[in-house]
Amino acid sequence: MDPFTIPIIADAIALHLDLTDLTQCVLVCKTWHRVFSRSLWASINLDNSFSDYMYGPMDDDDELVSPVEPLPTPPDVPAKTSRGTNAMPKRQASLAQFTARLRRIKRVMVDRCIKSNKRRDPHPSTSMVELGKSVSDESTEAISHPIPLPQFTEAFTTGFESNGQHVRHVQVTLPDLLPHILRYTPNLSSLFIQVDIGSEWSAISKLAENTHIRLTSLEIIALTLPYHWHAIIAKFEHLESLRLVNQHTPTSIEDLIRSVWRCRQLRRLRLVCPIRADVAGPFDSSAGASSSMRCFTESLIKQIEPLRALIDLDLRFKDTASLQDDFFLPFLKLASNVKSLYPPNLTRAQSPHFVQAIETYCRQIEVIDFTYLSYLTDADIAAVVKACSRDSMRELLLTGSTVGAETMAAIAECQSQSMEKLSIEHSQSPVPSASIQSVLASCTRLREFKAGSQGWKGQVRLDAADIIRAPWACHQHLEYLAVCVVGCSTPSLQNAVFDQLAQLTRLKSLDLSETLNETQKDVNERGGSLVWTLDSGMTKLASLTQMEYLWLLSGHFDLGEREREWINQHWPNLFKSAGVW
Questions:
Q1: β-strand pairing of 217-222 with 576-578
Q2: How many Cβ atoms from other residues are within 10 Å of residue 14's Cβ?
Q3: Nearby residues of 307 by Cβ (< 8 Å), 6 or more positions away
Q4: 463: helix, coil or strand?
Q5: Per the database record, which ranges form the F-box domain (predicted)?
Q6: DSSP, res 40
Q7: Would you list the DSSP string of 530-564?
Q8: Which residues contact 210 (CB under 8 A, 6 or more apart)?
Q9: The dihedral sign for the CA sequence 272, 274, 279, 285
């Protein structure tokens, strides 16, 4: 992004924001502005999310839709930039539009890039501080700039001596700042921290011992773990959300359990780490594991009190093939009321135990994510779907997994009245067209159905001959449909497909992309394509008045001028398309 100077940003905040909501933010901004020389604020980068909003496809010769009075160019920022000599007035106008948008925002996040000589990472670390009181769930905006570490520490102290009590959420990748955070942010409730070496955990330990700060959300990304890491985490008894990402240090199931079993208010638990099988522990998977070890495992499970508040469980462990077949059992017992489950990649031997654990402890699951779990077969996934309570599952994500007729039949039979979101994209095995039709014809509350989108060469195709067999039961709820329709070889089949699509009156996104780079021989083998012309039945889709996205990628037809005019007339909300123009 092109640079702005902090005086423009500061003045814009002071002039355009509602000071009753962000008074403290403005005070802190002005305090920091007085501390630093102007040169330290020379480069202000707006967050990447503003890229399309600020510039979009605008070229230097484009005219602004709503011209505004340009702001004066600061003397230390040249008007000529990489975008041309005429870019500065447009950036100033865009900045004015941006500040006008900030009027509706109740929360502001300041993203500071820290530069420190002690860090081995060549990339600058980041510390995010949310300023002001959060009074709604409206979106947050970010402003970032690079400043040296000593000056940042001084500014942090100066700015938060009187305003730190309003800070609720902090993101820091430099543990040296934690003492300052503890001192000046007594109402801190959410912390994200990244640590590189085990010794840096001492800062986290001090935070855990601080009785005045009650964290409800903690996210730690660590390269290594100290031997007593689980004892440190266990001290955060008020946690509602915990995410632990560990790259290199294998840990045991027992240590993971010890770290969280006291957190009675825990609602979300996400563990992404390598797992080891302890020879002396209860989860030994070696060939010499004795029956006494099994008894010890069962006794440990009986002693664990379920975390009844836990509803979101993410167990994306690494290297689970060497573990005992029921290594996940303590976690599922802990999460007896879990609603969202992200299981690890199970082996064929572990899969039956997982299904049995679901039937025993977690039958009320609403969301399961099997994305890219290569070990599970079609029969394994179908067994999990059947193990859950009837009509309890709302979302089933099977992208990149092995999906087939058994899974689709289980969904249609057991979860047809509750399923709202189903994704079978990039399936590793062919999915029969009749099975897809059975799901669409039985799932009454389905809102999203993704079965291979945007021209991906997959094995999921819906034949027109199957579409006409029964009406889709999801016509009152379906908003997102992505499937490759084939077999439209006759005008009657063309009309039948358009009739079926015309019933989806709430549809907002339609992706009927064909496989890219197909030869004419491939097209002939799979049957005719759906022809998008006014004469072939396209006019029946006038009922889809809420359409926003349309993908028709194909190398075998080109939408005519009449069809494009018809789309503009009947789909006024359409703002993104591919293969149409």
A1: unpaired
A2: 12
A3: 260, 261, 263, 264, 266, 334, 335
A4: strand
A5: 13-46
A6: G
A7: PP--GGGTGGGGGG-TT--EEE---SS----HHHH
A8: 182
A9: positive
Q: What share of the chain is helix, strand, coil (3-state, %, to 5)?
A: 35, 15, 45
When the pLDDT of each residue in the chain is averaged and rounded to a whole number, the result is: 70
More confident residue, 267 or 426: 267
Distances (CA, A) of 524 to 192, 486, 520, 521: 55, 10, 6, 5
| pLDDT (average), residues 75-90 | 41
| 563: phi then psi, degrees, rounded to nearest 5 | -65, -40
Helix (H) or strand (E) holding 577: strand 576-578
The predicted model gives 345-366 an average pLDDT of 88
Q: How far apart are CA 430 and CA 448, in angstroms?
A: 20
What burial class does residue 103 get, using C-beta atoms within 10 Å of its C-beta: 0-12 exposed, 13-18 middle, 19+ buried?
A: exposed
Q: How confident is the model at residue 421 (pLDDT cuts 50, 70, 90)?
A: very high
* Pair of tokens at residue 294: 């099994």
Pairing state between β 509-511 and 480-486? parallel
Give the whole-angstrom CA distance, residue 486 versus residue 460: 10
Q: How far apart are CA 184 and CA 28, in angstroms?
A: 13
User: How far is residue 305's CA from residue 286's CA, in Å, rounded to a whole number?
Assistant: 28
Report for 70-84, 407-421, 521-535: range of highest mean pLDDT: 407-421
* Complete DSSP assignment for 47-113: -GGGHHHHTTT--TTPPPSS--PPPPPPTTS-S-BTTBTTHHHHHHHHHHHHHHHHTT-S-EEEEEE
Quick check: 239 and 263 in contact, CB under 8 A?
Answer: yes
Say if residues 167 and 160 touch (Cβ distance below 8 Å): yes
| Secondary structure (3-state) at 148 | strand
Cβ neighbours, 10 Å, residue 560 = 12
Cα(54)–Cα(57) distance, integer angstroms = 10
Measured distance CA(256)–CA(334) in Å, rounded: 12
